[in-house]
Fold:
Amino acid sequence: MATYGSLRPARARFDSYEVDLNSSELFRSGVRVPIQEQPLQVLLLLLEADGKVVRREQLRTALWPEDTFVDFEHGVNTAVKKLRQALEDSAECPEFVETLPRVGYRFIVPVEWLADGGGKSALPLVVEMPPRGPTVVLPLAASEERPRQARVPWRFALLVIGLLLLAGFGRYLLRPRRQKQPETLTIIPFTTFPGFEIGPSFSPDGNQIAFSWHGFEKEFQSDLYIKQVGQERVVQLTHHPSIHLASAWSPDGRSIAFMRQSDPDATGIYLTSPLGGSERKLADTTPFGPMGLSWSADGKWLAFAKASSPATKADPSPEDFSIHLVNVETTEERALPDPSPDCVYTSRPAFSPDGNFLASACVLTGGVEKIYVQTPDGKHAREVAGATSSEGFTGIAWAADSQSLLYSSDLHLWRVPLAGGKPEKLLFAQDVASPAVARTGNRL
Structure:
């Protein structure tokens, strides 16, 4: 950070923004911008770095105390994305926060530090930014960039799980790619609870959704809930507050599997009834591992990411993560081979509805991620051409006909054919994570 001598900086100014360091508030052109504590902490760390890279490990240490059990990768990504939302910034074409994939972040505009002295005019302290290196824009990130003033704050999966009624969405997926969005596509909020509702999973008939929720006052104390489309009644399924939960409804509708991240003894894969009741543990998982699980089409196996050796907060060892399968009857567990020898690790498994493929996210050296599909036995695999992200995937789902994949990355939703091709940005969806598609009922 710059040297201030006897002057204590009271504000930091950049572009049209200003941070009040005493009140911990962010302003744009004099108007207060709502921002939560962790995104603001990230902003201050970036400002104080004087244009140097702030590594992800530094953010993790600053945001959470030593005894915290949390999905740090997801937490850091969420904090940075919320900061970008507050600054109306874009990861694709950044104006303020630049991403160095799998390394960290850097603030890329000059910062003016203002120190109040004895009631006199503030003295500017200007921090000059080092020259930027070349920015590489991936082909998928370049399509149809929307103007800043046109952004609409849809809230999908972060504060509200949005439902897209596929009386329009089914036709949307089957329409010619040059055709615009059909007028019958309808977007409605499914939940409006205070706090965070994430990880949606449809019942087989598409009429109910299981999801994880915690209020603002109970951060990292999530439980699993079920709500029926068109009704207000909500049923709480679990009563063990957890850091994170991810659920998957069985193909026959009789069971809900969920991944719990909590204290080490409770972390694992569980099975319960949609009607509530006891939980049956199927497998242990890694406390700091990636979330997400998926049922095989025959309802016999669950796929999830797991480390081959125990992880700790100091060493989550992401290189050890691979896709595992557990048999829901016998609890037999086996690891699948990585879909490519280039994968540093794999995560976010998703079985196709027809049972022919298992999709997953392959993280390459340098942090770029690609989607691969492989046969359920892991013997044959191939890359889905075009499905690439430098920001990381936050969800992978299949269309109901198993002919295309939907994925979320950098708060956008994309569709790519199973055969590969140029990804299509679905323009009706913004601020997106963890997409889920109903097998029937035309709903997303």
